[in-house]
Every structure is written in structure tokens, then in C-alpha cells.
Amino acid sequence: MVENASQLFNHVMTLVIMAIALGMDALSVGLGMGMLTLRYKQIFKIGLVIGVFHMIMPLIGIAIGELLSQHFGEMSQIAGGILLVLLGGQMIFSSFGRGDEPIIRPVGFGLFVFAFSVSLDSFSVGLSLGIYGAKIVLTIILFGLTSMVLTWVGLVIGRNFRHFVGHYSEAFGGLILLIFGVKLLLHV
């Protein structure tokens, strides 16, 4: 029983750290978006929509990942690790190559496009977690709540302080995902 409790704690901590890593992208983008003129009502709505997308996208990814895991076994775990390494590397690389101005304004349809683009990494991570066999409800709740709160934090900080953290938070989130990908690959 102690080993099961320890395994559960490790699993939950891994998911919390991954949720924070994924939320760093939302935080980073929120910082840039927060530099636009946004009311607190808009900030609340943006965070809520991004949180919902960070629940839907990994859920779809987990479902596909579980299906792949049932059919391809160990190869699926390798693919999940590779996906996390690539995603982490892409987040690190892209954090140093963008300007501060957002391409899409978070209003109307643009909000959904914005939320979808910010949550795409959650789909890939969900795919990896489905292969790994993560607890589904816990995963999507942690991802959604964490990204929602970090989006709010980013938007409020961006609204009040220019260039406070910048894109380094996205690079840090990418590094964490890369490390988890390597960890998955080493446990094959």
C-alpha cells in the first residue's frame, strides 16, 4: 500500500509539473496579450476559454494515445517520449524567435483560434500521456486549471508591467517537457 501511495504521489507530481510546463506557454503568450488594452472581464473570459481548450485537447490526445498504446505497446511509449522531446525543443526554439506582438487578437473568433493555438501542445502531451497510461480526469482538470490560472497571471502581469518575464517562461516550460520526454525514453 505504501508503494502504491508513493507511486500515486509521484504520478500526481509529474502531472502537476507537466501542467505548469504547459501553462508556461499560456503564461508567456498571456504576457504578450496582456500588453493589449484588455478589461478584467476580457481577461477572465480569455483565461476560461484557454483553460477549457487545455482540457479538451489533452483529452482527445489521451484517447488517441491509449488506442495507440493498446495496439503498439512499447513502440507507443517511445513515440510518446519522442513527441515530448520534440515539443519541448520546439517550445524552447520558438521562445527565442518571436516578437512581442501577438498575431491574433483574443476577441470573438480570434479568441478561439488563439486558445486552440496555445493548447496544441496539450494535445501532443495528452497523446504521450495516453500512451503512458495517465489518470484521465486528474490530468485534464490539472491541465485546464493550471493553464487558466497561468493565463490570468500572464494577462494581468502583462497588463500592468511591460516585458516583466518575456518569452523565457516558454523556454523553461519547453525544457521541462523535454526532460519528461527523455525520462519516458529512458524507462523503455
Automatic annotation (TrEMBL):
Record has Cell inner membrane as a keyword: no
Predominant cellular place of this UniProt entry's protein: membrane
Annotated localization: Cell membrane
Keyword DNA damage: no
Domain of life of the organism encoding this protein: Bacteria
Residue stretches spanning the membrane: 12-31, 43-65, 77-97, 109-130, 136-156, 168-186
Pfam families: Mntp (PF02659)
InterPro entries membership: Mntp/YtaF (IPR003810), Put_MntP (IPR022929)
GO cellular component: plasma membrane
Molecular function in Gene Ontology: manganese ion transmembrane transporter activity
Membrane topology field: Multi-pass membrane protein
Keywords, sorted A to Z: Cell membrane, Ion transport, Manganese, Membrane, Transmembrane, Transmembrane helix, Transport
Function of the protein: Probably functions as a manganese efflux pump.
Family statement drawn from the similarity comment of this UniProt entry: Belongs to the MntP (TC 9.B.29) family.
Protein's recorded name: Putative manganese efflux pump MntP
Organism whose genome encodes this protein: Terrilactibacillus tamarindi
Species classification: Bacteria, Bacillati, Bacillota, Bacilli, Bacillales
Gene: mntP
